[in-house]
Amino acid sequence: MTPRSRGTLSRVPPLNLGNQQPRTPLDVDQAWRTTAPRAAETVLFFDFDGTLAPVGDDPTAVRPAPKVLEAIEALAPAVRRIAIVSARPVEFLRDHFGGLTGVDLYGLYGLEHSHSGGETVTEPAALPWVPTMAELADLARTELPPGALVEYKRLSVALHYRTAPQLAGAVEEWGRAQAERLGLRMQAGRMVLELKPPVDQDKGLVIGEVIRDAGAAWYFGDDVSDIKAFAALRARAAADPAFYGVCVAVANPETGEEVASAADLTIDSPAALGDFLTQAAHHLR
């Protein structure tokens, strides 16, 4: 399916820094044609869950959508860099993308990263929180009601209630209490609440750093944490009119409206994104 262009919006999108309307052309082919001359200076950023892969009841069983890996492999030689920026740990991302050349992995909202198959580097300020997160995961498994799924990620703990949506209030109340008790930060997502260290790192900061000397960048995301990444592209475009940034939302029934309102383009699903990227590879070659 072809992506739906947001085009000219009726109001300024949230976090669209500088109060500027999206600059992306209405025609998607034109957007790629505008990117093509800058391809060697272009970075393509992707969230994982809900963007490159459909969200599933069991986070450990999630796999990239059809055509995604092949498309990324085809795109990598055509651009400066491809980066996966995810709430997942780097080791999880490495299992799916580690065989691809020229792909950087940013895990846990940037608390750890690996460049093109290299070693995993952890943000030093987050390391002292590893024992706290392990203890928190054990406590969550003991105290949360049956149906809540606890995902331990070494530097964060995700509390999922997708299979038991009636537990949303209980999970959020418990998570809020633990965040206050331990001095943690909370990140809400699609039927999940994540508790993480009080370290200044998020997707927006990752993207802002990587694109400092880039000529263009596209960011593909589906959840509220991705809006900060959109904002980083807006900020760079506001500071440098020669920079070309495109914010792409992947639709979903939970946070899709909020994310799409901050984007330039909306794509129907991770499966549709696989087709979209396959076409993009032809444009950039």
From TrEMBL:
Which Gene Ontology molecular-function terms are recorded?
metal ion binding; trehalose-phosphatase activity
Keywords attached to this entry: Hydrolase, Magnesium, Metal-binding
Protein name stated in the entry: Trehalose 6-phosphate phosphatase
Q: What is its EC number?
A: 3.1.3.12
* Region of interest (Disordered), residue spans: 1-25
Where does this protein have coiled-coil stretches? none
As for what it does, the entry says: Removes the phosphate from trehalose 6-phosphate to produce free trehalose.
Instruction: Say which domain of life the source belongs to.
Output: Bacteria
Tell me what reaction this enzyme catalyses. alpha,alpha-trehalose 6-phosphate + H2O = alpha,alpha-trehalose + phosphate
Q: Its pathway?
A: Glycan biosynthesis; trehalose biosynthesis
Tell me which species this is from. Answer: Micromonospora echinaurantiaca
Q: Which GO terms describe its biological process?
A: trehalose biosynthetic process
Q: Which cofactor does it need?
A: Mg(2+)
Q: Which SUPFAM superfamilies match?
A: HAD-like (SSF56784)
Identify the PANTHER family for this entry: TREHALOSE 6-PHOSPHATE PHOSPHATASE (PTHR43768)
Is Glycoprotein found in the keyword set?
Answer: no
> Per its UniProt entry, what is the enzyme's top EC class, as one word?
hydrolase
